[in-house]
Design goal:
This protein is α/β, with parallel strands linked by helices. Helices cover about 50% and strands about 10% of the residues. The longest helix has about 35 residues.
Length: about 475
């Protein structure tokens, strides 16, 4: 129900105060308490918007009441009422967080101005808080592109789960955006001002992972010259993102389970429990159920981590997101490399829509980056040539790897090592390819369409190769 009047609680042993204010300021609703104890109780029963608190009262003093009120979460602002010459108390109540002081005897108009000022400040503060949090969530979402039904569902789960303390397991193929989701879960949670700590369990050698996660005591092992806190301690009050959790060694899995259950662990070489308040977010592209069957992953840990699962669908199952992602990455890289933004041609876009993206969004991002850097979208036709598009392709990480293994020009340029097999073969293929293309172009009198037909490659692909091999009709 909407309250129409601002409620002010007066805590003062002098009944005249509430009578005078009640008579003079009809736009406020006044409730009053005669001493500190009654006043503190009325804060929870009456839920006032503001408090007027007398400093000098029999029993508990105003300062003592203020100290107790500071333990109430989101307590209303407090204005102190003080007699003349109580400078010392004024300084102390400032320290305790009082918003204003009014000297007794007061003028009713003066009280009205003070009350309104504080209310206005509170409203502005609240507005700022709302705007800040809206801006923050908008920023988070601006980075997370996709309006397909599948991605809208993912976004809605993120929104519901982020503010909770639940442990979340993010699953999905490589490059589907698991890390972005982990950062969003933190950014949209109540812990967002605290640290977000990422640990890639697959990247840290097994025997170092325990010390890295849980820290160690001085002398715990050779080289442990002093005590060092682990990532869990660094992440205290914030969130820890355990990436590639499927690669965590079995021995450490039980220690992690203990942290999940008791928020406690012992540093390597230590004896005392260290308590932490950390929210755990995990990600994996492994089939954990399969790992459980093979006894490589503890089932009790799995159930505990999997309080909520967020599954990120592969890009090939949400092709409608591709145009948005493309324009997002074009904007990003054009601004990064200070190039003019240009939309892709329809032909290129339809090729991108047909592709199966085994490396998911990361692969698309890398491709767009290269198009922007080279200023040539025809590379799409070469890069996404048939065969590579199979989902079971061994390539699943970075697009650069693809360029290296599929483009002879890139291979030839990739290494200076004269004994590198890749380099040798790449150079040989590149030379042969260049020779053949030049021959066919001469034969067709530089009719590029005819040449492309003869070579059995696409027209765009030929244009790209002509540019890459620096061929021209005068040579
Ligand atoms: N929905 C999306 N919107 C914008 N960028 C995205 C999206 N999904 C992924 N990306 C981008 O793709 C790249 C890969 O994403 P991310 O690192 O989160 O994938 P991942 O699932 O953690 O992959 P891996 O399993 O290989 O670690 C990042 O640069 C990320 O910014
Ligand atoms: Mg990742």
């Amino acid at each position: 129900m909407k309250k129409d009047k601002t409620k002010v609680l007066i805590i003062d042993d002098d009944p005249k105060v509430s009578w005078i204010l009640g008579e003079g300021l009809a736009e406020f609703e006044f409730v009053s308490a005669r001493d500190g104890i009654e006043g503190i109780q009325m804060v929870s029963t009456e839920k006032p918007d503001l408090i007027l608190l007398d400093i000098k009262m029999p029993g508990m003093t105003g300062l003592e009441v203020l100290e107790k009120l500071n333990r109430v979460q989101n307590r209303p602002e407090v204005i102190m009422l003080s007699g003349q010459g109580e400078t010392k108390n004024i300084v102390e109540s400032m320290r305790l967080g009082a918003a204003e002081f009014i000297n007794k005897p007061f003028d009713v108009k003066e009280v009205e101005i003070h009350l309104n000022n504080i209310l206005e400040k509170g409203r502005l503060r609240q507005e700022l808080k709302t705007l800040k949090s809206e801006l923050k969530s908008r920023n988070q979402y601006e980075q997370f592109i996709g309006d397909s039904t599948k991605m809208m569902q993912v976004k809605s789960i993120i929104e519901q789960v982020a503010p909770s303390e639940l442990t979340v397991l993010i699953r999905g193929e490589s490059g589907t955006g698991k890390e972005i989701v982990a950062r969003m879960l933190h950014g949209l949670s109540t812990r967002s001002e605290e640290p977000f700590t990422k640990v890639n369990c697959a990247a840290i050698p097994r025997d170092l992972l325990e010390a890295e996660l849980f820290g160690y005591e001085k002398g715990a092992f050779t080289g442990a010259h002093k005590q060092k806190p682990g990532r869990f301690e660094v992440a205290n009050k914030g969130s820890i993102f355990l990436d590639e959790i499927g690669d965590m060694p079995l021995e450490l899995q039980s220690k992690l389970l203990q942290v999940l259950e008791q928020q406690e662990f012992v540093r390597v070489g230590g004896i005392h429990n260290v308590h932490v308040d950390v929210r755990i977010i995990c990600a994996t592209n492994k089939n954990l159920e399969e790992a459980i069957r093979r006894q490589q992953f503890r089932d009790d840990l799995f159930y505990r981590l999997n309080e909520i699962s967020i599954f990120l669908p592969p890009l090939r199952q949400r092709q409608e997101d591709i145009p948005l992602l493309v324009s997002h990455f074009i904007q990003r890289y054009c601004s990064l490399y200070q190039k003019e933004t240009q939309a892709l041609s329809q032909e290129t876009m339809s090729r991108l829509l047909q592709f199966t993206w085994p490396g998911n969004v990361r692969q698309l991002e890398n491709l767009i980056k290269q198009i922007v850097v080279r200023g040539d979208e025809t590379i799409v036709f070469d890069m996404l040539s048939n065969g590579y598009a199979e989902p079971e392709s061994p390539y699943n990480i970075a697009n650069e790897a693809f360029v290296e293994t599929h483009s002879p020009v890139a291979i030839a340029a990739a290494s200076d090592n004269a004994f590198s097999l890749k380099h040798r073969v790449g150079t040989a293929i590149a030379n042969e390819e260049k020779k053949l293309i030049a021959e066919v172009l001469t034969k067709t009198n530089w009719n590029r369409r005819k040449a492309a037909d003869l070579l059995e490659i696409s027209y765009r692909s030929l244009l790209y190769k002509i540019k890459d091999y620096n061929l021209n009709s005068s040579k």
